[in-house]
Specification:
12 helices, globular, 36% helix, disordered C terminus, Dna Ligase, domain 1, binds magnesium ion, binds adenosine-5'-triphosphate
């Protein structure tokens, strides 16, 4: 029997970790393709001094903390580099988890990221060298002209935002200046507003992606609507592809992706989040799917000996985007193949079937959320959708 220990690096949350721990306990040992037995346990990681040559006890870590807390972040880098611990998500691409880098990457791949401009800080950065540097090199700029060129309405939002901090919708010059004055030391993007028909927000966990109808104007607990068939099949597939592509590109495995759908166009506006919202009070209907998938994916990685990847292979994606004869749809198909290969989607599918046959997983917990429209647009037998 091979034992695997999963570490949970946590901040304030208690809902999903409790569910995860319980589901993992109920899962019990599983057999791999060759009949070898694997047992799983998990533990909440505590923070303490560490010797860089210490051997970690964990085989895989689900991290919800290191984005803002640097002691565990540095520990994650160490266990990734020295001990090949499998991480959700890579600490080396945190810097790309500000929206900005991911916007750039997805624009480079030809995705329909709305027109976006980065403007310098309203207030100087707190650095004694600023005054000299600014006097020498900062060019004055015309904020009104930039906004005019993008066109109203537009959004002003931090280049590294999250949780709607500092996000404002701007309809005219007066609102533009009020928002910029209030931005202070936050570095802001101005982004063309999309007058969307549907907000499709996806959550990717390893090889699975769930696309959900998001209602940003509703209170928190009502934002994820329990509604199916809200996208045409092509738009659904595109939303899955974009979510999975961003993850594969940066070698993340547990992040959300926000896309705005207008007609048949899918505009990605937000992704790259080190600590996606998986709160019970927010996901509610989709919460069981998320936690079970987290269990399925982590067990898959450990039992099949999936090797963590720290290196990104941006060139493979850029090579596709640079092919002059491919249209947008053909490029998306190619990106999707690369992303699916990275997440070993076929192997994962086979693995779930294997667990179902062996009785380790209850019926109905197999292929959920792998693609659109497999899951969302077909009524499942028995229980409501999203629950397996
Ligand atoms: N270009 C845009 N067009 C239309 N609406 C937008 C646009 N950008 C942002 N929004 C609206 O503002 C909200 C917050 O924007 P965004 O998702 O970029 O910020 P965030 O702080 O990362 O939010 P979250 O916590 O949901 O990840 C979006 O959910 C959407 O409703
Ligand atoms: Mg965000």
């Amino acid at each position: 029997m091979t034992s695997h220990l999963i570490g949970l690096l946590l901040g304030t949350e208690d809902d999903w970790p409790t569910a995860f721990e319980e589901i993992l306990r109920r899962l019990g040992p599983v057999k791999d393709f060759d009949g070898g037995e694997h047992a799983f346990d998990c533990e909440r990681i505590t923070i303490e001094p560490f010797n860089l040559r210490d051997k970690p006890r964990y085989n895989l870590v689900i991290d919800r903390l290191a984005y803002w807390y640097y002691v565990p972040r540095e520990w994650l880098k160490k266990v990734a580099m020295m001990d090949s611990v499998y991480l959700l998500n890579s600490p080396f691409t945190f810097q790309s988890m500000e929206k900005h880098a991911a916007y750039c990457a997805m624009m480079r791949l030809g995705l329909k990221v709305p027109e976006t401009v980065l403007v310098p800080y309203k207030n100087p950065v707190d650095n004694s060298r600023y005054a000299y540097t600014a006097a020498r090199y900062n060019q004055p700029f015309d904020l009104d002209a930039i906004a005019h060129k993008i066109g109203y309405p537009l959004f002003m939002k931090p280049y590294d935002g999250g949780a709607w901090r500092g996000v404002s919708r701007i309809n005219n010059v007066t609102e533009l200046h009020a928002a910029y004055d209030a931005s202070g030391e936050m570095l802001m993007h101005l982004q063309k507003a999309i007058d969307f028909d549907v907000f499709a927000r996806s959550l990717s966990i390893g090889a699975e992606t769930m696309v959900m109808k998001f209602q940003p104007d509703r209170p928190m607990h009502e934002r994820y609507a329990v509604e199916h068939d809200f996208l045409a099949p092509d738009a659904g597939l595109e939303a899955v592809t974009i979510g999975r592509l961003v993850n594969a590109f940066f070698k993340w495995a547990f992040t959300p992706c926000a896309t705005l759908v207008k007609g048949s166009d899918v505009f990605p506006i937000d992704y790259a989040n080190a600590c996606p919202d998986v709160a019970l009070t927010s996901l509610h209907y989709y919460f069981p799917w998320a936690i079970k998938t987290l269990v399925k994916w982590t067990v898959f990685c450990l039992a099949t000996g999936r090797q963590p990847r720290l290196d990104t292979d941006t060139r493979a994606y850029f090579d596709i985007s640079d092919l002059p004869d491919l249209d947008y749809g053909q490029k998306l198909d190619r990106y999707r193949k690369l992303a699916d290969a990275h997440f070993a989607v076929d192997e994962y599918r086979g693995w779930l079937s294997h667990l179902l046959r062996g009785g380790s997983l209850p019926a109905g917990c197999g292929m959920g959320g792998l693609t659109w429209p497999e899951r969302q647009s077909k009524a499942p037998p028995g229980r409501g959708r999203g629950l397996c």
